[in-house]
Amino acid sequence: MSTVRTVDWDGAGGGAVAAIDQRALPGEYRVRRLATVDALVAAVADLTIRGAPALGAAGALGAALAARRHPDDPARVRAEAERVAAVRPTAVNLRRGVERALARLDDGADAVLAEACALLDEDEATNRRLGWRAADLLSELCPGRPLRVLTHCNSGALAAVAWGTGLGAVRELAERGLVEEVIACETRPLLQGARLTVWELREMGVPHRLCVDSAGASAIARGLVDAVVVGADRVAANGDAANKIGTYALACAAAQSGIPVVVVAPDTTVDHATASGADIVIEERAPDEVRAFAGVPVAPPDTPVYNPAFDVTPAGLLAAVVTESATFRDGSWTGDPADAVAAANPGSAWGSR
Ligand code: MRU
């Protein structure tokens, strides 16, 4: 595996965000330097940086870029940071990352950067813990055998600063010798499963197969899958989970076949201010993502398009939502992710709730 963090702070040359360019993988592994808020906003919009925890890191570092650029103008810093927070509305970690770092603005730009860097430092430890908890639960739900896991989109190290969430749990299971195979859905339109998850599984040495999105339900129905394991972009208070478009359909298929769906995400993805999935804003992306494939048109250029980036899976279709400190199962939370979020966000709107 790469030892480079997916998103990091590079202090050289006046300082910049350093990010693995996720648009270029698997063909090319390159790191981009993003020295301005404009560059960071564009990189979040075009999915150079993507995946919920990685977006949290980008948000915090975006606030730091703004604070360093306008050290004597807090109003300008907040306005610039808001531009970062608003780029992708579904992934709550983005705004949370911004708010956590901005909570230190009164202490100066260096303090904002230090808070952002603390968020990055915590990410891997958090993910290892939630992966470990999710692996324990999956072993309980599907006892006595190495698992055949189906996953969707990319919830690995590339979706975080390091290690990953849903795919981090798979990695933990693999280290325990408990993975027979992972089936990765390709994840149209932008192929995060084919391009990124498969790349990570190869690096991990985990046996895997790639399928088109429309084969996922059939793999489940044919008995090729023991459990569906995914990440999330926002989990509502009632356990409804927003994740990459197509997750809901897989959950319906899993329910029909009686296999568990486990959502693995950090506490910071649980949004207790959002009562249910119906309240989650779903990001709509550009029509050309669907009208073309790798730049080649696959539909008439003026075709109207429906291109939601995410869907919501109702809690009733989930066996569990697992975070590093809490589990949602059978209609209620054990542990208290709200407290954990507050502890991680002192002084912010989240922390004071
Ligand atoms: O549009 P993306 O690639 O940012 O969507 C990412 C996902 O939907 C992931 O599954 C989600 O962020 C969980 S990953 C930790």
Question: What would you note in describing this structure?
Answer:
By secondary structure, the protein is α/β, with parallel strands linked by helices. The protein has two domains: 7-122, Up-down Bundle (Four Helix Bundle (Hemerythrin (Met), subunit A)); 127-344, Translation initiation factor eif-2b, domain 2 (Rossmann fold, 3-Layer(aba) Sandwich), CATH 3.40.50. It has twelve helices and 17 strands. Strands 6-5-4-7-10-15-16-17 form an eight-stranded mixed beta sheet. A four-stranded mixed beta sheet has the order 11-8-9-14, covered by helices on one side. β5, α7 and β6 (208-211) form a beta-alpha-beta unit. The longest helix has 33 residues, at 109-141. Residues 47, 50-53, 153, 155, 159-160, 165, 192, 230-233, 243-244, 309 line the site of 5-S-methyl-1-O-phosphono-5-thio-D-ribulose (MRU).
CATH class of the largest domain: Alpha Beta
Tell me the CATH superfamily of the largest domain: Translation initiation factor eif-2b, domain 2
Overall geometry comes to: globular
The hetero compounds bound to this protein are: 5-S-methyl-1-O-phosphono-5-thio-D-ribulose
The total count of strands amounts to 17
Order of strands across the main sheet: 6-5-4-7-10-15-16-17
Low-confidence stretches: 344-353
Percent range of helical residues: 25-40%
Residue fraction in strands: 15-25%
Radius of gyration of CA atoms, rounded to a whole number: 19 Å
CATH topology of the largest domain: Rossmann fold
Mean pLDDT: 94
* Terminal Cα span: 39 Å
User: How many domain units?
Assistant: 2
